[in-house]
Amino acid sequence: MTNRITxxxxxxxxxxxxxxxxxxxxxxxxxxxxxxxxGIIGAGSMxxxxxxKHIQKCKKATSKPFAVNVPLLYPNVEEIMQIIxxxxxxxxxxxxxxxxxxxxxxxxxxxxxxxxxxxTKFALKAEACGADAVVxxxxxxxxxxxxxxxxxxxxxxxxxxxxxxxxxxxGGIGSGKAMLAAMALGAEGVQIGSxxxxxxxxxxxxxxxxxxxxxxxxxxxxSMKKLVPVRLLKNEFAEAVAQAEAGGANAEVLxxxxxxxxxxxxxxxxxxxxxxxxxGQVSAMLKEIKPATEILEGxxxxxxxxxxxxxxFN
Length: 314
Hints:
The chain is α/β, with parallel strands linked by helices. The protein is built from 14 helices and eleven strands.
């Protein structure tokens, strides 16, 4: 399959592995890249020197294109961007912040820039800043989320209608069927997080992976909207947040409950009750820990089967 996304990134399949904190290290990114998708190193959970090592290891592990995701609201952004430029990274996904500051810097270095958005306003802003594509991430997604709570099925056609650059769908996509639905709505590629969070190569703690595949319908909740909206698996920490929000807690109170390194405690260190467990609604559909190659190939083959099935309607 060839389209604007496969040509832009130089990949075989229009399937992108999301840059998830504490899950997306060089092992996962290189495995997805070698399988024909676009792997992403998630810089959001890395100090600058750690990111440099992951980039260098990824370059040794694959000759295929890979990217780095940079949450723009995180500290050390200046140093991270310089490392990306120094290490010759060719593709950057930016998120959680204003793309106006860093898109021109990256474009001057010849770097392909993709910005993650959750509404049409910021899609247009990203395009105006010079982004080469946008990831339109719906309410179903794990991790940091949009305040509007717009679902992927509504968001994708709205964004596709107002921008000229390619749209990548994200949020609730973990199968070939979901991929076909996203493409039918106007997306030219899909970004997948939760399904790759449980890959063998994911750097997530084994306890977190097991909790994900044990998750049932309704086991995630969008929380902390007064601070930074994030979708979490229910546990003691998430329940404490829910109770505080029900009592009218403001951003300052929620920040106090969150504390420091809460996501690391849960997703990377394996504390399943006190940690922050960021994952999408599609977790209820994930039932097995598998190699990244098998996950990607399974999604692609199901996509092709569904295309054939739909064509049979004619």
